[in-house]
Amino acid sequence: MDDDERPGAEEVRSAAAALLEENWTGDHTVPATGLYPHQWSWDSGFIAVGLRHVAPERAQRELESLMAAQWADGRLPQIVFDLDRDDDYAPGDSFWRSRTIAGAPERPTAGLIQPPNHAWAALLVHRADPVLSRARRFLEEAYPRLVAWHGYLAARRDHRGAGLAAVVHPWESGTDNSPLWDEALAAVPDTPTWQVTRPDLGHAAAAERPGRKEYARYFWLAERYRDHGCDDTDEDHPFVMEDPCFNALWAVSELALAEIATELGRDDAPHRARAARIAAALEGLYLPELGIYGARDVVRDALVRKTTVNGLVPLVLPGLPHAAELVDTLRGPGFLCGGALLVPSYDLRAPDADTALYWRGPAWFNMNWVLVAGLREHLEGPLADSLARQVITLAVRHGFPEYVDPITGEPHGTRDFSWTAALALDLAMTESAL
Fold first, then answer.
1. Which of 64, 158, 347, 402 is catalytic?
2. 410 a catalytic residue
3. Closest CA to 359 of 287, 306, 299, 298
4. What is the DSSP letter of 357?
């Protein structure tokens, strides 16, 4: 790509800031005004990372808004609902009825969770304007909530007692339609009692979204979890998966909590110890024959041997034993050496890869942002900078799409997507990115 085709830092800043302003509701940023009209958990983490460069107080409020919807058991919910938009997304508040569940907050939320990137985001937001952060007591207020959130994961989601948190629904992984979940999801009934509606298809092509059977299974699983009071002690729950992406983000956020504890004069040792335990447990997911981390199906006690971007995310962890192998895999024919501009969500050589279909081949901007951070952690600066430039260029050129074809860069999903704008902005504000 020629230098004159790349947007300059000011162009990126202006376009991204304008979109984030447009999607701001007053206390949080919606991922996209049509397709995703509520507040999503890990979206807010990524959005805050970008907002810190142009509106640090809004970045703090983004995370504070989410944490205000924390459950009594410590969970941060997947979605905080805007009741005025309940018909615009399914399943919404009318499905979850969270306020009828013991321990749920007054604000209407989903009962599920999403990957824990929040402490990492909070630390970056604080560092963007520490004077403002201290004046607003941002970290002082956030720290106990983040400790409770991580405590929930350790106490309620470590189903094997091995140190890893499990997801109990594909939506909790953030990578809903990943091939990692295919086998486990195939055993889930596709007969929910709730009528499955698809408002998403009014904003994105059917060929880009999960199919009818997948959605029916998603609803059935969500129904079961809801009807059990969102209680994680349901031993017969049929979908329990340990995801390398979810757990790597938990570990890096635990390290961020250690830094936050130090800033507040608290003991950082428990956080560093838990981060080390998660990182050590992740090694049980490593697949040496594939040079990547897989997922574990806890119900069947089996490793899922599929090569997805989830398995590259552990690169964000310092001292990772298999960092060199992950970099080789990332550079290899299934990912960047397959002619890709950005890292795809699934091995391009797989017979069922589809570069337009949700999480089954397209490149996602949040995952590529995480991998840029991982490459920099392991001193792969030139590759990190090259990837960052592609993220910025494709994001701005196509109006901040949800995801793109990794080979052609063709945009897919919805447009004006908040985390795409936020993370392109973050990379543009990094001196070496442009």
1. 402
2. no
3. 306
4. S
Which tokens belong to 318?
């310092």
Distance (Å, rounded) from C-alpha 150 to C-alpha 148? 6
Q: Torsion angle of alpha carbons 114, 116, 120, 124, nearest 10°?
A: 20
d(C-alpha 117, C-alpha 273), whole Å = 18
Task: Map residue 302 onto helix, strand or coil.
Answer: strand
The contacts found for 162-166 with CB under 8 angstroms, 24 or more apart, are 162/281, 162/284, 163/277, 163/278, 163/280, 163/281, 164/242, 164/247, 164/278, 164/281, 164/282, 164/284, 164/285, 164/296, 165/116, 165/242, 165/246, 165/247, 165/250, 166/240, 166/241, 166/242, 166/298
Angle at 155 (CA atoms; ends 154, 161), nearest 5 degrees: 75
Positive or negative, the Cα torsion across 293, 297, 301, 303?
Answer: negative
Q: Note if 402 is an active site residue.
A: yes
Sorted by sequence, the CB contacts under 8 Å of residue 200 that are 6+ apart come out as 35, 89, 90, 209
3-state secondary structure of 218: helix
Could you state, in chain order, the average pLDDT of each consecutive group of 10 residues for the chain (434 residues)? 71 97 98 95 98 98 98 98 92 96 97 98 98 98 98 98 98 98 97 86 78 92 97 95 99 98 98 98 98 98 98 98 98 94 98 96 98 98 96 97 97 96 96 50
User: Domains, the chain, ranges and CATH?
Assistant: 3-433 (1.50.10.10)
DSSP string across 13-34:
HHHHHHHHHHTB-SS-B-SBTT
- DSSP H helical ranges for 283-380: 323-331, 365-377
Cα-Cα end-to-end distance for the chain:
12
What is the distance between the alpha carbons of residues 250 and 206, in angstroms, rounded to a whole number? 33
Q: How far is CA 188 from CA 83, 157, 169, 294, 427, in A?
A: 30, 20, 11, 21, 40
Catalytic residue among 27, 176, 354, 377: 176
- pTM equals 0.96
